[in-house]
Structures are given as structure tokens and as C-alpha cells.
Design goal:
17 helices; F-box domain-containing protein; alpha/beta; disordered C terminus; 14-stranded parallel beta sheet; 16 strands; LRR_dom_sf; Leucine-rich repeat, LRR (right-handed beta-alpha superhelix); coiled coil
């Protein structure tokens, strides 16, 4: 350390030295500057020695590392575990599997020699024009590495080079087992609609917008008519009914069908019947439904439809009278193996339409008689009262999984604001008696959990079978509300998994990307 400066008291001040003091300072600085140069030289020498020793240690540690001693089959299992658990891996050099080829020559040879690493791919068709050739070559190389394995391909986006990308898909179409297409037009889809894909087992299609008049050509296209096709998912922001062909058609091979829609995209009763009638072997069915208020002569079916293998039915309602849904749709279905039944309002619509509660209890009796095995149920208190909810659970005493929805409509017909939540609160107090086998409960509301605290705590204190409780609130939790949130630690120590989620604003319909299918790209 340098000696004490005679100007110590003036440092870091606005003091102005005299001429003699300035000469004194100039004479003092060179020796310190020389010492600093010497220290910097020493630091560089020590740093070089440090880096050399560290490199020696690291290189020799690498020789004895466990990774070098791993058998190739173990490395391959590790590589497979690096792939995403949801969706297809992206064409991204910073993610698996591409990044695995950038570590060392050994890993590169192992990765590039594993067809299973390259049998699925998600890519965008919106590459800049200057990168198009390189991008399409990378896609082709990826799929070539998959050998002869069945492929899962996911594409996204509209492009002026659509023909070139579709040539790639055509080249590998004989091996495609799963095909996801999103954010493209129906016109673009029709370029590949006639592909020969004999292994195709699943197809998902979410167009950016509908080309009116072309919708029916989608379901009638060769891709959707393949004999091995089992699972179909379609997403439309509007006019889902326009998909369903007017002429009778049959999907005997189809087992899983999901038709999701935005604000005005649900099926009408007529199109829903036509579609369901053509899919007699479904195991899972999910679709959005709306009433066609423009019909001069509303459709009222008279013949029942039997779905002998259907195990799960989900109907999302928009601008619909639930009594109409039960009478003209649910009551017309015979589903002896049904175990999962969800009928609720769609969260993508602005809740400003009249919503009269369910009054036709006879339809519930019919449902219980025809589908006695239901153990997974949704109760939406926009449509149910405490009385009808109790009646419904009395018909299904074996319920193990229950979802309660307690949102509000802004126009409720003859119901007052807040009635849905009040009915749900009173209903929760009766749950332990109504559902003696309940193991999983989901509560969804636009209000804070504090509105339900007393009823929830009472239920948790009395239940002996519950194993999981999910609470999903679409509201802002302010500081005052946080102080009144119930403490669930006691119940967690008893082994109940309790999750509380706050989201605001509530989830709305997005563009036709595969986020609509629970996949984010």
C-alpha cells in the first residue's frame, strides 16, 4: 500500500492545489505508476500459471470422469430423456437433440446414429427467404436421420414457399404417424390433403382462419379418411359446424375426437348429431356446442344414437340453453360405458348472455340410467342450483373426481348476481355426504378462494378419502385478500395435495395455434 498522502484531507473534494502542490503531486505519481505496471505484469504471469494448472486438472479429470465410462446404451437413454415431454422437439441448435451433437465427436456420432432421437420434429414454415434453402435442408436432414421409424411432424405458420415445405412432407408421408398443423389456411392444408399416409394415427389442425366454403373438404379429404386414423383434433375460432359434411359420412375407425372452438365456433345440434352418428366407435369426444337461434324450425331429433365404447364426453357451451342441450343432445345418446362427463360453459366467451338454469331433471334421470358408471363429473353452477346439483350427485354416488365451476354471467335471466357462488358454497358443505368416495376435487371460480374458505375448511376437516384438491381462481389477489386465504398446511401434512392457482385476466381464445391443444410453440 502507498504511504499516507500529504493531500489526504483534500482527496474527493473540490480543493484546488497551489502551483507548488501541483508540482509535488506530479513528482510523486511516476513511482506509483511504475509499481502498478509491475503488478499488472505479475498478475498476467500468475493468471497464465493459474489457467495452465486448471487446464491440466480439468483435462485429467475428464479422463477419469464417469461420463467416459458410461456404456453407449446408457448414453442413448440419457439422450432420449433430453427430449421434450410435451410436443415435438424444435429445429433449434440450442435444444435437444441438435445440441447433443455439439459436445464432442463421440456424442455426435451416437446422437446422429439414433433414429429415435429424430423421429419427431416441430418446425415453422416462416423462415426468411434468404434462409429458406438452409432451413429446408435442415428439416430434410433431420427426418433422414430417423431411418425408417414412424414420424411425428408438427408445422406452424403460413409461407409463400408452402409448396417446397409440402414437398418435404410428401417425401416422408409414408412414415408419418402423427401430423399437427397450425396457423395456416384451409387452402394451404388442401395442398397436402391428398397425401398417402398409411400409418397416420393422429391429426391435429388449427387454421389461422377459415376459408368459407372449404370447411367440409377438410373432413372429406384423404388424410382424414385414412383407415388407421384414430385421433382427430380440430380448432376453429368460428363456424366449426361448417366442417361437418351435409351428406352422411362414417368414421368407423375413429376413437378420439376433439372439436374446440372460439366465441362463435360451436357445433349446432343438427351438425353435432350428424357428426356423432358417423363416429360409432368413439372412446373420447369433446366439442363446443351452441344453439342455432336463426333456425326457423329448430332441430329436435327423435332417434337415439348408441356409442357403445364412449368413455369420456366433454361439451363446452356458448350462448346455449342447457335444457336444450340435455333434451336434444345428451338425452339422445346411449353411452353405457361412459365414466367421464363434463358439461360446462366455455371460458372463451364473454359471459353476457341469458343462462337459465337446468330445469329438466328427467334428462338427468335418463343419463344416470343409461350411463351408470360415471365417476368423473363436472358441475357448472351457471346452469345448476344447489337442488339440481344435489340431485345429480345422488344419481351418481360413485363419483371419485369432481369439478365445480362457480363463475357468474352478467345477465342471468331470473337469477341474481352471486347466486352461482352461493349455491356452490352451500353445495360444498354437503360434499362429504354426497360423495363418500371422492378422491379429487377441482374448484374453479372468478372470485378469490376467501369466498369459499368456511365451506372448504369444513369439507377438508370431514373428508377421509380426498387425495387432491385444485383451486383455480380467475381474479386479482390483493394484499387484503392474501391475509384471509386459509392455511392448508394442516391438510397437506395429512397427505392431501392442494394447489391454488390465480390467473388474471381469465383465459381467452387465442389464434389457431396449438396452444389451443395445450401445446405452446
Amino acid at each position: 500500500m502507498p504511504a499516507q498522502s500529504p493531500f489526504q484531507e483534500h482527496l474527493y473534494t473540490n480543493y484546488i492545489p497551489t502551483d507548488d502542490e501541483m508540482d509535488q503531486i506530479r513528482a510523486d505519481l511516476p513511482q506509483h505508476e511504475a509499481e502498478l505496471v509491475s503488478l499488472n505484469k505479475l498478475i498476467r504471469e500468475l493468471t497464465a500459471r493459474h489457467n495452465g494448472i486448471k487446464a491440466h486438472i480439468d483435462s485429467h479429470r475428464a479422463l477419469i470422469s464417469y461420463a467416459r465410462r458410461l456404456p453407449q446404451d446408457i448414453i442413448e437413454e440419457i439422450f432420449l430423456a433430453c427430449l421434450p415431454t410435451e410436443g415435438c422437439p424444435k429445429l433449434n441448435s440450442r435444444e435437444a437433440p441438435l445440441i447433443l451433437g455439439h459436445i464432442c465427436g463421440l456424442w455426435r456420432s451416437i446422437a446422429f446414429g439414433m433414429p429415435s432421437l429424430w423421429s419427431s420434429l416441430h418446425f415453422s414454415m416462416q423462415a426468411p427467404w434468404r434462409d429458406f434453402a438452409k432451413h429446408s435442408e435442415a428439416i430434410t436432414d433431420w427426418l433422414v436421420r430417423s431411418g425408417e421409424l414412424p414420424l411425428a411432424i408438427s408445422t406452424w405458420g403460413e409461407t409463400m414457399y408452402r409448396e417446397h415445405y409440402h414437398q418435404i412432407i410428401t417425401r416422408f408421408s409414408h412414415r408419418i404417424r402423427s401430423l399437427h398443423m397450425s396457423d395456416m389456411t384451409v387452402t394451404q392444408y388442401l395442398l397436402v390433403a391428398g397425401l398417402d399416409a398409411p400409418l397416420l394415427d393422429e391429426i391435429r389442425f388449427a387454421p389461422r382462419y377459415w376459408d368459407h366454403g372449404l370447411g367440409q373438404r377438410v373432413l372429406l379429404s384423404k388424410l382424414f379418411r385414412g383407415e388407421n386414423l384414430r385421433r382427430v383434433t380440430l380448432y376453429s375460432l368460428e363456424d366449426m359446424w361448417s366442417f361437418v359434411p351435409i351428406a352422411p359420412f362414417f368414421w368407423h375407425h375413429l376413437t378420439d375426437l376433439s372439436l374446440e372452438a372460439g366465441d362463435n365456433g360451436g357445433l349446432y345440434c343438427r351438425s353435432a348429431h350428424r357428426l356423432i352418428k358417423g363416429c360409432p366407435n368413439l372412446r373420447s369426444l369433446k366439442f363446443a356446442f351452441q344453439t342455432d337461434w336463426s333456425e326457423d324450425q329448430p332441430f329436435h331429433p327423435t332417434k337415439h344414437i348408441t356409442l357403445p365404447n364412449l368413455e369420456s364426453l366433454t361439451i363446452l357451451l356458448s350462448y346455449t340453453d342447457i335444457n336444450h342441450v340435455y333434451k336434444d343432445l345428451v338425452d339422445m345418446l346411449f353411452m353405457p360405458r361412459l365414466t367421464v362427463f363434463h358439461l360446462s360453459h366455455s371460458r372463451t366467451i364473454p359471459r353476457t348472455s341469458p343462462c337459465p338454469p337446468l330445469s329438466n331433471l328427467e334428462c338427468l334421470d335418463h343419463l344416470a340410467a343409461r350411463s351408470p358408471e360415471i365417476v368423473n363429473l363436472t358441475l357448472d353452477f351457471l346452469y345448476l342450483t344447489k337442488t339440481t346439483g344435489v340431485h345429480l350427485l345422488q344419481l351418481f354416488p360413485r363419483v371419485e373426481t369432481l369439478q365445480l365451476m362457480a363463475d357468474e354471467m352478467y345477465t342471468l335471466g331470473n337469477r341474481t348476481m352471486g347466486q352461482s357462488q352461493r349455491d356452490a358454497i352451500e353445495f360444498i358443505k354437503l360434499l362429504n355426504r354426497l360423495c363418500p368416495d371422492l378422491t379429487e376435487l377441482v374448484l374453479e371460480s372468478e372470485s378469490s378462494i376467501t369466498e369459499f374458505s368456511e365451506a372448504i375448511i369444513g369439507f377438508l376437516n370431514s373428508t377421509t378419502t380426498l387425495r387432491r384438491f385444485d383451486i383455480r381462481c380467475s381474479c386479482v389477489l390483493d394484499s387484503e385478500a392474501r391475509e384471509t386465504v386459509p392455511d392448508f398446511q394442516l391438510f397437506r401434512r395429512r397427505g392431501i395435495v392442494i394447489n391454488t392457482t390465480y390467473t388474471y385476466p381469465p383465459l381467452k381464445a387465442t389464434s389457431g395455434q396449438f396452444s389451443a391443444f395445450g401445446m405452446a410453440f
